[in-house]
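Mods, move this if it's the wrong board.
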Amino acid sequence: MKIDPRIRAALTQERWLFADDEFLFTNLQTLRPPVSISPSADDEFIVNVPDPYDYGDNEEIAGVIVNRKGESSNRFSDGTIGVPQLLREKAEQQEEGFSCRTNCDANTWMDVLVNSKGKLFYYRPQGCSDDSWEDFDAVELPAWHLVRRNDDLDDWAISHEYGLKSVYRVYLYDHNQATCCAELTPSRELNFVDLRYELNDGVELTDEQVNQLDEIIQNAWSAGEDIIYVHCHEIDAVDPEEKDNYRHIDQNPMSDKEVVDLVNEEFDYEEAKQEVLEYFRCNCML
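Not the wrong board. Structure tokens:
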């Protein structure tokens, strides 16, 4: 699966230098989890450059500070300010150095995708071809859907008294998330949105009956489960026109702003879910 085009549009491809201790294995293919090293474009390395201004018998080596992209700073490794332009150009031609943070050798360059804050979002493992490196699942965007589940009218003793045609619950779920509940079969997490009802054709209730029925429904709403889990295959196989069981109603994909927030590590999944739940509880699609 390719990276969502909206995510890709919010990222910049760059070439970064990595130190040996930033890899999970000695084969230098898998980076340690970003949460532990949090690499950014501003991380500093030292590269050694022969001093072109030294014409003595013993050639001096200058240590110049560069960032992950190999861009030279105006500082030497001893803290001195004022790196000559020629020396900066030489520094940017170096392919290896060592990390200022850990003093570990750094000689591995990798193509990376970077967010607007200069933080690593995704990288291309070594040996991966140019055409396929973005075919990996870097991230799954939430894909919010609503689904309807009809209650069994036999569980509602008032169904005949009020002429109920159906009582149904509406749930929100993320199609890109699956949970295994103490079993191998994955399930969807269904978050309760609303409890609603339909009347049989031709049934008209008085205002008092409407108020009574609304109160009954409200009490049942309060006593309902906030979250239930249903096997993915049951949800995914639902016909949009099916009215007897679960039924897809609508979907709410992430906004462009949420995509950018996710890329920039400012996206809070639970907060976003609560906002979507609040929206649909106030604007149910039925």
